[in-house]
């Protein structure tokens, strides 16, 4: 029954994107993020998606190459890999797809 309910919710979310956004907000609140952090995170998700889409459409194969590029960008601005930065900020799972 649980799987059926989750499936129903996801189908409804494909029809109405607002439901997806509300679910994501609820998840972040349950994780203990404040409104300021949530407001910072949501635009970042869009930027990451656009960047990944661009890489995929031009040169990057999904998976390892995308991870390498992401790590290089993270190292350039923070001096740390994505994993190191996540560990520093305790962002477990937040950037994983």
Whole-number average pLDDT?
A: 79
What's the order of the H and E elements?
HHHHH
Summarize the amount of helix as a percent range. Answer: over 70%
Rg measurement, Å: 16 Å
pLDDT < 50 runs, ≥5 residues? none
Query: Strand-residue fraction?
Result: under 5%
Total number of strands: 0
What kind of sheet is the major sheet? none
Alpha-beta classification: mainly alpha
**How far is the first residue's CA from the last residue's CA?**
26 Å
Q: How many domains comprise the coordinates?
A: 2
Shape label: globular
Total helical elements: 5
Summarize the structure in words.
This protein is an all-alpha fold. It has two domains: about 1-30, no CATH class; about 40-95, no CATH class. The chain has helices at about 1-15, 15-30, 35-60, 65-80, 80-90. The protein is globular, with a radius of gyration of 16 Å. The chain starts with a helix and ends in an 8-residue tail after the last helix. The relative contact order is 0.05.
């Amino acid at each position: 029954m649980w799987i059926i309910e989750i499936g129903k919710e996801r189908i409804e979310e494909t029809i109405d994107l607002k439901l997806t956004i509300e679910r994501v907000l609820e998840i972040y609140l349950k994780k203990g993020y404040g409104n300021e952090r949530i407001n910072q995170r949501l635009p970042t998700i869009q930027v990451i998606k656009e960047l990944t889409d661009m890489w995929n459409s031009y040169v990057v194969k999904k998976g390892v190459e995308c991870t390498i590029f992401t790590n290089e960008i993270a190292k350039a601005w923070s001096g740390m890999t994505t994993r190191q930065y996540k560990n520093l900020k305790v962002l477990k799972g937040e950037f994983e797809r």
